[in-house]
């Protein structure tokens, strides 16, 4: 009998995980970050519950610094699919005028992402949140379970992880605990791209090369997406043909010069590239094991 | 991610097409501390060109700072993840690594070598198909080697690579290798390994990892990578009989009722006869529904949604199988468990047990023995501590469908969870049922609600009248019953008069008693509906939660909530029994509407405004509603001629 191939196995596993959450949790939500991993996760959710709609809303934690094209794409996609989209921004951060230029990436990420996410989960009392993280992204993720428990304070304790065997996931929570669930745990970056290609999944155009206005900051190309980008006196953004490997807040996301303006060309470039995916993310450049520390504090 | 394939640069679309069908192999690496596991995995990643330049630069700088290789690249640093581990220099948890070649994608469960972390190894091994067991050529077979091998066999892995590592430190000696392999084969036989391939390697130097070693011309077998790329793994699930755990019932609208799950064994096609277990009800597969269109066949591993020809009662935790080669059904079995918690096993204590998608309560009734994993000796035991393995009898609170673990890990593997802390405390494998119950396959009970209702020529349902005291509930309910009786329907009316004085005479009117009152009435009405009756319930039933509970006891469409809506002032004006007067005078405590709340129904099926229509008109209205909603039809509708061959 013909066995399933890699992508078929990954797809079936992710669908199984999503259905387990819906069957066992009271109030799940899907964290939708608008990136390619979220695109795949959303696509899988549509499959998992077909012909029903996914029985949970999407939640986007908006730092107000996302690329404008991401927001357009987000609104369009949720509308096309007929899904409920919740958008949350940390009001304290807005009141204090927190932003990556004025406060630096660490404070911005903490207030507008980490704390905002906690507030949002508390506000709607979500007991399980799907995230698109993959184990191949980064060393501390490689050890994380598919069902990853957070304390009432949203902290992750790598020493207290539950054993996860076979296809049996333990979704039983203690009071105050909530679960982050990662249906794409076993996908690699290449799997994600291949699946997007195979299934023709829509993604934000920023992944494809186009002429965009950029300035260079500490050797990283930053796109001038709106007037909040501080420019040196007399500085003018250069028009360059660039694309993005990952998407986040525009001031924290480095562009790469590229001519890859089709999906196969993008995949080709990834396969031939010599630097890892998260290199373009400014937040990962902090001290060693920084991601593990952030996660213990409640970063997704 | 510089894959070696030339095709990437030349014709990316052809490459993508070719790689769409790439297979996946999941394997574990296990060995003792310092056997060189992390180095080996780092080397596999490095040799398959999975290391990016920025990672390599970081690795080189890390190797100088923390490395153990005198400034040379320390591959182990690539995979040792958590900060604490990097300081201690040992791996302490299960980590998953990914790499791929032109032939396959690989997921490696990097499992701990330290003796106290058996639970992590079992966890890592449970999702893999092959094990690479590492041995330090200088040390030969250690206690931990036996332990890891036994655990590997226990979890059902049959394909094993014995990687004799650090051959560079024994001068690439064939004698050393041969002796270790001979020792190991003796042991492997005892624990039932079928396919053991021994490969002499050096993770550090790269011998026989991806390139055949020039240092060991005496070895003529495949390199480790070649073997991993080409080994044929026979997945037991594929050749097993058809099984699917029902995971989620998909009701997208009134007409669609699908059963979602991942196929745990064999294959299924539309037209196949199936049986739902443990109920034993049978039907036929109508469709295999996916977003990409209906399938002609679904095989083990696929996540699908099935629909059936008959409306049979199936819910999460049921097993769907074919009608031959059935799983066993029992509430007691013998199995092996691996204890994974600091708090030891308490025989007799109830734990949650998850098998497939089924959650039941389970207790270890008999701890037969624990197993010394070094000698495989069976020892008497009173309990199991963390990392101990025992043979047990387990008793459940209800029967489940299952297969022996050896035949299908998805229908024979289970976990136990603590009922207070909710943590996973044990992994287990079902061996066989106790008693002869595995040979008695439950047949569907033929005399059921539908059959009883059918005999009476009607559909069973519950008409639940709720409203304030004096609203006119019982008056209307009585009239409805008279009309139904006249139509030849079999009915019963439950109200305060026949329940409060008998079944519920121990209950008063405080909130807790009101809740219990309605709970009992709900249960009784369910039993009566099950006997095929049209049941009328006339109770104030002031709380939403209890009305919802009563509704939940019945099948969709069987519960008709009728809100007899009379404003408090009007009910108080009528006051047929003088109760409001007494309540106002303080002679009755906890009187609904006065000193105890009434929660108005939000979405009743029927709302009767008694200020607008009289009781006889209300009764006619209700009868018409029942007729319009198909509740007064006989059980057999025209066209409802489902064959039951």
- C-alpha-based Rg of chain A, rounded: 19 Å
Mean pLDDT of chain B: 85
Q: What is the tally of helical segments of chain A?
A: 8
Helix content of chain B: 25-40%
Please mark out the parts of chain A with pLDDT under 50 across 5 or more consecutive residues, or reply none: 281-289
Classify the secondary structure makeup of chain A into a structural class.
alpha/beta
> What is the overall silhouette of chain A?
globular
- What portion of residues of chain A is helical? 25-40%
Number of helices of chain B: 20
Distance between the termini of chain B: 58 Å
Helix vs. strand class of chain B: alpha/beta
Main sheet attributes: strand count, strand direction, barrel closure of chain A: 6 strands, mixed
Backbone shape of chain B: elongated
Describe this protein's structure.
The complex is a heterodimer of chains A (300) and B (645). Chain A is an alpha/beta fold. Chain A contains eight helices and ten strands. In chain A, the strands form two sheets. In chain A, strands 3-2-1-4-6-5 form a six-stranded mixed β-sheet. Chain A has a four-stranded antiparallel β-barrel with strand order 7-8-10-9. In chain A, helix 2 links the parallel strand 1 and strand 2. Chain A starts with 5 loop residues before the first helix and ends with a helix. By secondary structure, chain B is of the alpha/beta class. Chain B is built from 20 helices and 27 strands. Chain B has a six-stranded mixed β-sheet, sandwiched between helices. In chain B, strand 8 (248-253) and strand 9 form a beta hairpin. Chain B is elongated. Chains A and B meet through helix 1, helix 2, helix 6 and helix 7 of A and helix 2, helix 4, strand 2, strand 3 and helix 7 of B.
